[in-house]
């Protein structure tokens, strides 16, 4: 398996997710913004896992990042990034759904300010992962 090509594909997918999240945010679609940000974090996580030779057949890639911390000799910057991704995903999931009624579609409990902050944080994480990818390919 070519881990570099696989990681590159996941980075491309996360870039697409980030673009769609930004468009949804600009359109005022809170629900779709959060869905795309969460997908972006999943694809970023898959890219990181692929760089270290880990490919998930099933399961949550964000939770699986903990495996890297336990089994690889990561620097503090990488460990911190993984913990930040996991924390951000938890924060997004907490506000993503609120079931007001079984007769209504899911609501989003996010304020515009929260969404803007999440978008900035995920964008920053994406840029860091791009740099990590580049460091793997001097």
Fourth-level CATH superfamily: Nucleotidyltransferases  domain 2
Report low-confidence residues grouped into runs of 5 or more.
none
Portion of residues in helices? over 70%
* SSE-based structural type: mainly alpha
Please tell me the total number of domains.
1
Q: DSSP helix count?
A: 5
Q: Return the CATH class.
A: Mainly Alpha
Strands, count: 0
What is the radius of gyration? 15 Å
The average pLDDT score comes to 90
Largest sheet: number of strands, sense, barrel closure: none
Protein name: HEPN domain-containing protein
Organism: Acidianus manzaensis
Question: Can you describe what's shown?
Answer:
It comes from Acidianus manzaensis. This is HEPN domain-containing protein. This protein is mainly α and 138 residues long. The chain has a single domain (3-136), classed as Nucleotidyltransferases  domain 2 (Four Helix Bundle (Hemerythrin (Met), subunit A)). The chain contains five helices and no strands. The protein has helices at 3-27, 30-51, 61-71, 76-96, 112-136. The longest helix is centred in the N-terminal third of the chain and has 25 residues, at 3-27. The radius of gyration is 15 Å and the shape is globular. The mean pLDDT is 90.
Notable characteristics:
mainly alpha; 138 residues; 75% helix; HEPN domain-containing protein; 0% strand; Four Helix Bundle (Hemerythrin (Met), subunit A)
Q: Topology of this structure?
A:
Blueprint: H1 3-27, H2 30-51, H3 61-71, H4 76-96, H5 112-136
Helix pairs in contact: 1-2, 1-5, 2-3, 2-4, 2-5, 3-4, 4-5
Please give a quick description of this structure.
Helices cover 75% and strands 0% of the residues. With 138 residues, it is an all-alpha fold. 30% of the residues are buried.
């Amino acid at each position: 398996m070519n881990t570099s090509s696989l990681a590159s594909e996941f980075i491309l997918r996360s870039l697409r997710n980030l673009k769609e999240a930004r468009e949804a945010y600009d359109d005022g679609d809170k629900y779709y913004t959060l869905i795309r940000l969460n997908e972006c974090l999943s694809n970023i996580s898959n890219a990181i896992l692929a760089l270290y030779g880990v490919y998930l057949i099933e399961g949550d890639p964000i939770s699986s990042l903990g495996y890297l911390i336990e089994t690889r000799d990561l620097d503090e910057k990488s460990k911190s990034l993984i913990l930040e991704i996991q924390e951000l995903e938890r924060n997004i999931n907490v506000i993503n759904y609120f079931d007001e009624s079984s007769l209504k579609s899911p609501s989003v409990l996010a304020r515009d300010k929260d969404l803007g902050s999440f978008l900035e944080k995920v964008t920053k994480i994406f840029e860091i992962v791009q740099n990590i990818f580049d460091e793997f390919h001097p």
